[in-house]
Amino acid sequence: MDRSVLWRPEGEALRDSALARFSRDCGIDPGDYETLHAWSIADPGAFWSRLWDFAGVKGERGPVALERDPAAPMTGARFFPEARLNIAETLLAGAHPERAVLELDETGARAELSADALKAEVARVARGLREAGVMPGDRVGVVLPNRIGCLVTHLASLAVGAVWTSCSPDFGLAGILDRIGQVSPRVMFVQPRIRYGGKDIDLAGRLGDLAGRIDGLETLVTIGEGEVKAPMPVIAWDDFGSEGPLEFEPRAFDDPCYILYTSGTTGAPKAIVHRTGGVLLQQLKEHMLHGDLRPGDSFLWYTNTAWMMYHWAIAGMGCGATTVLYDGAPILRARDGLDCSPLWKAVEAETLTHLGISPKYLSSVMEQGYRPGEAHDLSSLRWLMSAGSPVSPQQYDWIYDAISPDMGFASISGGTEIMGCFLLGSPLHPVRRGQLTVKGLGMAVNVLDERGAPVLGRPGELVCTEPFPSMPRTFWGPDGDARYRKSYFSERAEIWTHGDHATFHPDGTAVIHGRSDCTLNPGGVRIGTADIYNVCAQFPELEDFIVFGRPVEGDEEIVLCIKMTEGARADADLARAIRSKLRSECSPRHVPGAIYCVGDIPMTVNGKRVEGAARSVVSGKAVANRGSLANAGCLDEYAALSERTAL
Q: For the residues 586-600, what does the mean pLDDT come to?
């Protein structure tokens, strides 16, 4: 018995899953995923054409599937150059008729719309955008929580051919200006009052200041209560647009649809321009084939509206599933401590089939000793998914012990840059402890060592060697094409270098060790941060932790900073225990030279540790964009670490 296998799919998956049906349609045995994947990257034009038809994409794909450029095999490739389509048309055509979208929030409030009601709202707002002068290619910006209004602006903007770009209301003024301020939206939607973590927050003043500082903004639309004063017309949501037919503007495959932003922790956020057809095909493939999302399913991914997982989750509508939105904190403060129940209550009450979370959320729930499977009926849940950072082997164990042994789990890895995944789950494969399950179809991913040779069983750089349709169109702004190529193709000409340190195994599974720019290098040996995090996660005394390198006399010293749980004590015995476990489970190279107890761990608004910021301040360097951090003030403590005695 293989103890690494935590879950196996039932036999009917080989018959009933969309992945199995797609494989048979392509003339390949569903049990032979290696051949299916090999064909999908050997003949990408044929693969993506077959997927277009299988997924029911609305529009005309044209006679040419892929134009190759021998001088630029990746950056010069063009998929479906004669296609015409609209993302919103395909998503709304697939919307669940009775319950297209369901909105939940931390107060327990609930709202839902049928497909017809959602289409009517999208039509109204689309007419409002056209009346405001929005033309195809114009930008529409939003600073909105994850509610139905935001979804309507999303679909309406796509319907008229505009480029939709979003920030979450929990970003500060500087963070929003650094992002949406780059792209000069013509219309912007905002919500003056929001609620998060049991607190009502008034954003009216901040939003008015924001509107006055965005070049080219002509109309501001407010959703909900609160008055915003701005130097342009301000229109209430209910007064924007008018009833009428829903019309979709046909777009070329490579026409822009979204602008997303990198975290901005190593410089100004990069504004990434995404392609209409590439985003749609990539996300339908991932939901339908890899995520086993079926008509009638219900899918909630806990995310804010700035993270790419928002855009990704919305695309599940095109599979006939109910899109479930959640606004607010997933863990609430209660009289007797923390309440970890909100998302699990939603699974039970709404019989959700798919739930998406993050490793940080899993850690928080685990630390509270909460066992969702004992507190709630989770029998409807077929798939749990996680993104944002690597999931530790111990978290895999906890998932199948404390949540449910009878569901699939997929740790997925990709990025804002590709609006999708390189590695993700599969309804035809077992879930193995600590492993990402398969390479994505159509994605020629590999791991290269320092020679540039592909390797198995050893860590290296994650790359993609063949074109795929959701590669960015460009970066917004001057020299956008040059900056885009420099970011992903400068290390290896015409090979996408993603910036992740990874290991591929002979059975097709993979491990992500962390970001390459955060890889530790003591004594010239490369070490992934995730390996150290996996060990630290085994200590219940630690609420959180961060690791980074500190220059020392021509070498690098590993520094580990730990944040203690309430009531726990950081002392020399704990430091010895951590070092001992790292030495035995990893290697002597993984043992930190210094361990410090800190008050907080620097995080992005999306909950990702920011190793680079900690490393910079400890080394006496400036942090390029503190506005990207949710808690930038904690860096002051890191700047003084070298003056302290380590544990």
A: 92
Q: Which phi and psi angles does 489 have, rounded to 5°?
A: -125, 5
Could you read off the pLDDT of 88-128 as tens digits, one per residue?
A: 999 999 999 999 999 999 999 999 999 999 999 999 999 99
Residues 559/579, Cβ–Cβ less than 8 Å: no
- Rounded to whole angstroms, the Cα distance separating 627 from 14 reads 48
Which secondary-structure segment (H or E) carries 560? strand 555-564
DSSP state at residue 470:
T
Tokens 């050997």 sit on residue: 42
Handedness of CA 1, 440, 398, 538 (dihedral sign): positive
Tokens of residue 399, six digits: 């998932």
Comparing C-alpha atoms, which of 208, 210, 220 is closest to residue 179? 210
- Using CA atoms, how far apart are residues 511 and 390, in angstroms rounded to an integer? 8
511-to-205, 528, 576, 610 alpha-carbon distances in Å: 45, 10, 27, 20
**Residue the block writes with tokens 């080989």:** 14
Q: Give 475's Cβ-side CA count (13 Å radius).
A: 20
Cβ contacts of 86 within 8 Å, gap of 6 or more: 58, 59, 158, 159, 161, 248, 249, 250, 251, 276
Residues 6+ apart with CB under 8 A from 575: 595, 646, 647
What pLDDT was estimated at residue 608? 84
Neighbours of 211 (CB within 10 A): 21
Strand residues in 197-344 grouped as ranges (E): 199-202, 219-222, 234-236, 251-252, 256-261, 271-275, 298-301, 322-327, 332-334, 337-339
Pairwise CA distance, residues 348 & 375, whole Å: 10
- The single residue listed with the structure tokens 């650094």 is 178
Short-list 623, 622, 614, 601, CA closest to 641: 614
Average pLDDT, the chain: 94
Asked if residue 403 has pLDDT above 90, the reply is yes
Whole-angstrom distance, CA of residue 59 vs CA of residue 87: 9
Average pLDDT for residues 36-41, to the nearest whole number?
A: 98
Pair of tokens at residue 586: 């990893």
How crowded is the C-beta side of 372, counted as CA atoms within 13 Å?
A: 27
Torsion of CA 56, 59, 61, 63, to 10 degrees: 120
Q: What is the pLDDT of residues 249-292, one digit of tens each?
A: 999 999 999 999 987 555 678 999 999 999 999 999 999 999 99
Q: Are strands 5-7 and 431-432 parallel, antiparallel or unpaired?
A: antiparallel
Nearest-5° angle of CA 284, CA 290, CA 295? 60
Secondary element (H or E) of residue 411: strand 408-411
Which of 349, 353, 373 has the alpha carbon at shortest distance from 108?
Answer: 349
Q: Report residue 499: phi and psi, to 5°.
A: 95, 15
Pairing of the two strands 256-261 and 251-252: unpaired
Tokens of 226: 């609160």
Amino acid type, 95:
A
Taking residue 110's Cβ as centre, other Cβ atoms within 10 Å add up to: 12
Q: Whole-prediction pTM value?
A: 0.90
